[in-house]
Design a protein that fits this description.
Blueprint lengths: L1 E6 L2 E6 L3 E5 L8 E4 L2 E5 L4 E3 L8 E11 L3 E7 L4 E7 L2 E11 L2
Antiparallel strand pairs: 1-2, 1-5, 3-10, 4-7, 5-6, 7-10, 8-9
Length: 104
């Protein structure tokens, strides 16, 4: 059984027991999160597609850790204008483990 969820402006295909990194959630480590924006649920034979979300469907997940991703360097340059700008960015994330997928 798998589901397509939406969190942090992105969509993820998840199965039970999977770990994934999503945009930072304000939940302590070890806490549980209930994701209710489920776009699609499939159990092999039956597939339910929401319009846009499925009412009553939830995905329960446990927060494993918080962290920050690798540094991305932004470099702007204008030739012959003596303009150079360097900037770095590290995106925060939350690693979650999918515990259960429930669809009505």
């Amino acid at each position: 059984m798998y589901a397509v969820i939406k969190t942090g402006g992105k969509q993820y295909r998840v199965v039970q027991g999977e770990r994934l990194k999503v945009e930072k959630l304000e939940v302590e480590v070890g806490g549980t999160v209930t994701l209710d924006q489920i776009l699609m649920v499939s159990d092999g034979d039956n597939t339910t597609i929401g319009s846009p979300i499925i009412k009553g469907a939830t995905v329960k997940a446990t927060v494993v850790s918080h962290g920050r991703g690798d540094k991305v360097m932004i470099f702007k340059f204008r030739r012959r204008k003596h303009y150079r700008k360097t900037q770095g960015h590290r995106q925060s994330y939350t690693e979650i483990k999918i515990e259960a997928i429930a669809a009505k």
